[in-house]
Amino acid sequence: MKATSEFQFPAGFLWGAATASHQVEGGNTRNDWWLYEEAGRLPHRSGEACRHYEWFERDFDLARSLGHNAHRLSLEWSRIEPRPGEWDEAELEHYAAVIAALRERGMEPVVTLHHFTNPAWFAARGGWERADSVRIFARYVTQVAARLSGQVRFWLTINEPSVYAKYAYVTGDWPPLRRHAWLAAARVLWHLGRAHVAAYRILHVHNAATMVGLAHSTPYVVPCDPGSRADRAAARRRDFVLNVLPFRLLALRPAAVLDFIGINYYARQVVRAGRGPGTAQLFGTECRENHHGPPRSFTPLGWEVYAPGLQAVLARFGRFGVPLMVTENGIATNDEAERSRYLESHLQALEAAVRGGCPVLGYLYWTLMDNYEWTEGRNARFGLVALDFATQQRTPRPAALLLQRVAETNIAGPAGGCQYPVPGPDGFGSAEK
C-alpha cells in the first residue's frame, strides 16, 4: 500500500461521508419503516438511532475535524409532508438549518430526496406502485426546491431504485414486504425513473446552476468461467437488471436528465449459471469459491471485498458522458485493520480511475458513524466513527484518520486529467461541467 501522502486527486475534490435520515436521525415516527418496526414486522427498531436530528451540529463538527469538506444527507419526506398536501414549516426550517450548518463549516451538502423510506400515508395508498406517485413526489420536490434549492448545489433524487424494488417487492425484506412481485417491482422502477425526471426538471427550474443526479447501486458483475457460454449469459442478464435497466427506465439519454451519477459500490458478484426453476436459472447464482485469482475475502454481510471493481464500474459509467461521484463505498466489519485495508485499497482504485481520465467529483464513505442499518439493525458496523448506542458516544476509528490524511493532502492537490466544478465561496462551481 502507498503512503497516504502519495495519493493524488484533483483540486476541489470532495471528501466526506454519507448518511440517510431514518438511519441516523431517530424518531421518524411518520414513515412506513417505523410503522413496520413498531408492529414487529421487521427484525429491528430504529428508535432514537444516532440522535442526529438533534446533534447534527456536533456530528458535523466531528466530520470537519476529520478533514471532510462534503457530506451526503437525506431529507425525511414524512417529516416535511406528514399528511397529503400538508407541509410542516418547522421541519423545512430544520433541514435549512442542517444545510446551513454544513456550509458554515465549509462542507458541501449532497442532498438526497428519497432514501428508501416513504410517508406512512403514501405507502398506505399504494406507494410507488401507483402511477400518481410521480405527481405526488413532484409536489414534495417542488416544496423542497422552493425552500432549499438556493443552498444546495448537488442533489440526488432517488437512492438506489433497483435495490429498493428488489428488497421491497422481490425478496420481501423491506416494506411493503411483497415477495416475488415482479410486475409490481417493474412498475415501481418505472415510476421511480419518472419521479427522477420530474424532480430533475423542477430543481433546474428553481436553480439552473444546480447539479442533479441519482445514486445507483453498481455491483461489479462477472461470469465465474469466462469460457462458459452459460455463465456469460447469466452474468449479462444479472448485470442488465442491476446496472442497465434502471437507466433504461429513464426513457431518455442519461446526459439529458443527469448532471452527474452517484456511484454506490460495495462488492463484486461472480456469477455461475443456475440450475433448476426460478430466478437462479435466469440470473445465475453467486460463486464463492477460491478459483478467481488470489484468495477471496467476504464481509460478515457476505459481500466480496474487491477493490478493482470500483475502478471498473467508474470506467464503465464514465462513458455516459457526465461526471460521477462515489456516493457510497464502505465495509461493515468489527476488524479495524480490515476496515483500513478496505478503505486504502478502494482509494487506490479510485485514484487509478481518476488518473485514467474518469470524471469523478468526490468520494463519500458509507457511513459517518455506526447507525441503524435497515434489517441488520445495529449489527452492521459501517461507520468511520464507532457509536456506542447506549451512551451515544462517538469515537473515530483508525480508518477515519486514514481518510483524513488523504483528504487533507488532496483537497487542494494537483490537477488530474479532467476539469471539475470547483466550489467557490458560495459553494457553487465556476468550471464548466
Structure summary:
By secondary structure, this protein is of the alpha/beta class. It contains 15 helices and 13 strands.
How does this model look, in words?
The chain is α/β, with parallel strands linked by helices and about 425 residues long. The chain has a single domain, classed as Glycosidases (TIM Barrel). It is about 40% helix and about 15% strand. It is built from 15 helices and 13 strands. The strands form 3 sheets. An 8-stranded parallel β-barrel has the order 1-2-3-4-5-7-10-11, surrounded by 5 helices. Strands 6-8-9 form a 3-stranded mixed sheet.
Topology:
Elements: E1 14-18, H1 21-24, H2 32-38, H3 52-65, E2 70-74, H4 77-80, H5 89-104, E3 108-114, H6 120-124, H7 133-148, E4 154-159, H8 161-169, H9 182-206, E5 211-217, E6 220-223, H10 229-248, H11 254-257, E7 261-264, E8 268-272, H12 279-283, E9 285-286, H13 308-318, E10 324-328, H14 336-355, E11 360-366, E12 385-388, E13 393-396, H15 398-410
Parallel strand pairs: 1-2, 1-11, 2-3, 3-4, 4-5, 5-7, 6-8, 7-10, 10-11
Antiparallel strand pairs: 8-9, 12-13
Helix pairs in contact: 7-9, 8-9, 13-14, 14-15
